[in-house]
Fold this sequence. Notes:
The structure holds 2 protein chains of 2 kinds. By secondary structure, chain A is α/β, with parallel strands linked by helices. Chain A folds into 3 domains: 8-188, Rossmann fold, CATH 3.40.50; 206-269, no CATH class; 272-379, Rossmann fold. Helix content of chain A is 36%, strand content 20%. In chain A, the strands form 3 sheets. In chain A, strands 3-2-4-5-7-6-13 form a 7-stranded mixed beta sheet, sandwiched between helices. Chain A has a 5-stranded mixed beta sheet with strand order 10-12-11-14-15, with helices on both faces. In chain A, helix 1 crosses helix 2 (39-48) and helix 10 (289-303) packs across helix 13. Chain A is globular and about 70 Å long. The termini of chain A are far apart. Chain B has one domain (6-280): Rossmann fold. The longest helix of chain B has 17 residues, at 263-279. Chains A and B meet through helix 3, helix 4 and strand 9 of A and strand 2, helix 3, helix 5 and helix 11 of B. Strand 9 (232-234) of chain A pairs parallel with strand 2 of chain B. The complex binds thiamine diphosphate (TPP) and iron/sulfur cluster. Thiamine diphosphate (TPP) is lined by residues 57-60, 76, 100-103, 127, 129, 131-135, 140 of chain B. Iron/sulfur cluster binds at residues 24-25, 28, 30, 59, 129, 133-134, 208-211 of chain B. Chain A: Keywords: Oxidoreductase. Chain A: It comes from Pseudodesulfovibrio indicus. Chain A: This is 2-oxoglutarate ferredoxin oxidoreductase alpha subunit. Chain A: Residues 281-374 form the Pyruvate:ferredoxin oxidoreductase core domain.
Amino acid sequence: MPRRKKRTEIFALGNEAVVEGALLAGCTFYGGYPITPSSEIMEIMASRLPKLENGVFIQMEDEIASMGAVIGASLSGRKAMTATSGPGFSLMQENLGYAVMAETPMVLVNVMRGGPSTGLPTSPAQGDVQQARWGTHGDHPIIVLSASNVQECLDMTITAFNMAEKYRTPVILLLDEVTSHTREKIEIPNEGEFEVFSRTVPSMPPEWYKPYEETVRGVPPMPPIGSGYRFHVTGLTHDRNGFPTQRPEEVVELMDRIHRKIDQFFYDIQLVDEIMTDDCEVCVIAYGSVARSAELAVQQARGNGVKAGLLKLKTLFPYPRRHTEKILAHARTLVVPEMNMGQMSREVKRVNMGHASVRTINRVDGQIVTPSEILKVIMQG
Amino acid sequence: MSKITGNEIIHQYLRHNKKFPHVLCAGCGHGIVLGTLIRSIHSLGIPKDDVVVVAGIGCSGRLAVYVDFNTVHTTHGRALSFATGIKISNPKLNVIALMGDGDALSIGGNHLIHAARRNIGVTALILNNNIYGMTGGQSSPATPEGSTTMTNPYGQLDSSFDTVELARGAGANYVARGTVFHVNRLEKIMTEAIGRPGFSLVEAITPCHTQFGRKNKYKSPVDMYNWLKSTAVPLERYNEMPEDKRRDRMPIGVFVDRDRPGFEERYYAMQQNFLKQAAKGGK
Lengths: 381, 283
Ligand SMILES: Cc1ncc(C[n+]2csc(CCOP(=O)(O)OP(=O)(O)O)c2C)c(N)n1
Ligand code: SF4
């Protein structure tokens, strides 16, 4: 086995790690509009991308335009991304739905801040969890990932690009201010140590190509605009050729396929870390920076003789149901701490269906959830 | 030797058997604008694969379905932002943003200003029919003061927007206005606009008798075309007209014609400089 090259270590901010991850994944386009606590992602992109061969950075006039530009760039064959926070995320929703419908790969990072509205601009919060799931209109699948430390910011950004390209869909990376603004030592993986997935491009002659045709994975190949495959892209419900349709059987075919291409690959998409969950009686389910507090609380609880465990969600949607169900076989209590009024505990309760008792810990005061708060609830059993 | 007719040219660019019949009302001016666009592209000799038509939402936005280019039907008002992403990603492409007046001036007004300011190399083609056609005849920013619409049953109070002045002020490289009645002139400016670097804008005045005319004393398409004929005057003539004669007249022609490099040219020049410095060992 060849000796592994030593990895570069850097001391980085969460937002900086996102940029590193994106560039490693092959991102060559950033279009955005500044808003705290996400701005560093944009600022670092502004200094890095123009110096790269083929890198494009553009500051757009608002978040709606940013999404438009990102989708345009992706249609042109680039790996493209944007980043924002709360109010900007709301503005991106209409075009996010467009990206789902037109099956356009892209990564949208939302560093959550306290809301509603302009709310608590730079305080930690996890208030956009359900907005990420249901913010745009209509029924649609969506992939939402998160990260709980700086290394994960890098890793999950790569994962986000890979999933976007693999499944031809927008992927949202939901971060919170604590993770984004924490500075930690991280390792930059070497080339070859991680997967880089790029969308499949058609190999058939242009006359044969049908842009929205069924395939084995449900994901049609996607050529860059201007490469000789001329077709129509639209947000309207369309047939296999990409043209608008209202015929019920064609509508259903499209809707089924865009759902199925995600459903079929739950095992690949639903990522979690399972920490002492094998025998746990009390299981904490957490994500983002709260998962760090939870991990410490679980260790302390074990020290106190309580069989506690942590299911750390790295994929928020589609909700990792099968990982939770496994735990429900032996856990009598689930504890869901979050920096919102209970946006993820809804999902947990939905999957739990009365098996265990679900306790929630909710903070909306712009303060972090501490290990001792979680420990207290764990100790109540 | 037979001469190639205008129709034969157009037929080469339509998506036959795929999306016909079309959705437009008989007598609508939108088809005429599409015809001039096709003939302009043809006369410039641009291959179909190098043309991207990025359309907004409205009757005008639907035009993209029928032409055999790369076509993107976007969200309402956002065509220019998609077009910007496409052009900067691949500057070799000829990107044409096709929008309605509601699309471009109301919901998309901000993008229009900034596309012009940025001078991105996109041709913005605004089909101005003074009304929201597709949604059933509500007033648009271009609805003339005093006219009646579904949302102005007592007459439009706001004054009508001057697209040309807006685009000029925002910094567009090329700004022109034409009408579907003066079709040869329209084709000429469209050809110029597509051939220019940087951001160019063509406002094409096109009648919507179904939604606008019906409520405003132009009962038939013919009335509407007569209205265009009597209202529009070439800019050169307009400039010589006394102030009081200018009222109710609309100048057509080329208003701005500059030659500044587009955003994409400036961006890639900057990038080339960085890459050269890096090759020399600088940082
Ligand atoms: C965000 C959003 N708001 C409103 C609409 C509804 N809508 C569809 S077309 C249209 C207006 C079209 O008018 P215009 O742009 O003037 O084009 P025309 O149909 O007259 O060619 C509106 C308001 C929409 N599709 N999306
Ligand atoms: S409603 Fe007006 S703009 Fe729309 S197709 Fe009919 S005439 Fe044309």
